Amino acid sequence: MRKFTIAAIAVLSIAGSGAVYAQYHRPWMEHVRHMRMNPEDRAAFVDARIAAVHAGLKLNADQEKLWPPVEAAVRDFAKLRIDRANARMNAGPGDADRAEDPIARLRQRAEDMGASSAALKKIADAADPLYKTLDEG
Q1: pLDDT digits 0-9 by tens, 56-65
Q2: pLDDT tens per residue, range 33-74
Q3: Which of 26, 46, 50, 54 could form a disulfide with 78 if both were Cys (CB 3.0 to 4.6 A apart)?
Q4: Whole-angstrom Cα distance, residue 6 to residue 14?
Q5: Looking at the predicted structure, is the pLDDT value of residue 107 above 80?
Q6: How many domains does the chain have?
Q7: 3-state secondary structure the chain
Q8: 86 with 37: CB under 8 angstroms?
Q9: Residue 97 and residue 100: Cα distance in Å, rounded?
Q10: Count of alpha carbons within 13 angstroms of residue 103, beta-carbon side
Q11: Model pLDDT, residue 93
Q12: Predicted pLDDT of residue 112
């Protein structure tokens, strides 16, 4: 059960990033850039992944009480990633100049990493009590 939980939390943590990466880095579909995932689809994708992990854990009643903080932390992280993807998708022509500046990109990347770091720490803090209750079953 612990191995599954570790894998599940890792999957949830990168759920948004995987979907976003796949959305913008599909070399075999470069000619079809108009087929981007809309915000509602991204949210539905995250909901489905969270529900799948929750169902796969098969938590008992005591463990079930520890799930809501984990889910909230994962949703916060996913929202952060989705918001970034939506911002990139909706970037206007004026944003192209800023994107060309390597120093501005480095600063933005550092800010994004800081926010991601805080969100991942929140997931770890929320998942710790639940993780400690799991056994191999």
Answers
A1: 999 999 999 9
A2: 545 677 788 889 999 999 999 999 999 999 999 999 999 999
A3: 46
A4: 12
A5: yes
A6: 1
A7: CHHHHHHHHHHHHHHHHHHHHHHHCCHHHHHHCCCCCCHHHHHHHHHHHHHHHHHHHCCCHHHHCCHHHHHHHHHHHHHHHHHHHHHHHCCCCHHHHHHHCHHHHHHHHHHHHHHHHHHHHHHHHHHHHHHHHCCCC
A8: no
A9: 5
A10: 0
A11: 65
A12: 94
Give me the residue label for tokens 């209750």.
133
The backbone torsions φ and ψ at residue 43, rounded to the nearest 5 degrees and listed phi first, read -65, -40
pTM of the model: 0.68
Structure tokens, 65: 């009480």
Dihedral (Cα; 46, 49, 55, 56), 10-degree rounding: -150
Q: Give the type of residue at 89.
A: M
Residue-wise pLDDT for 109-133, tens only, equals: 999 999 999 999 999 999 999 999 9
User: How far, in Å, are 16, 48, 109 from residue 62 at the CA level?
Assistant: 29, 23, 40
Task: For the chain, give the number of residues.
Answer: 137
Among left, alpha and beta (phi > 0; psi -120 to 50; other), residue 46 is alpha
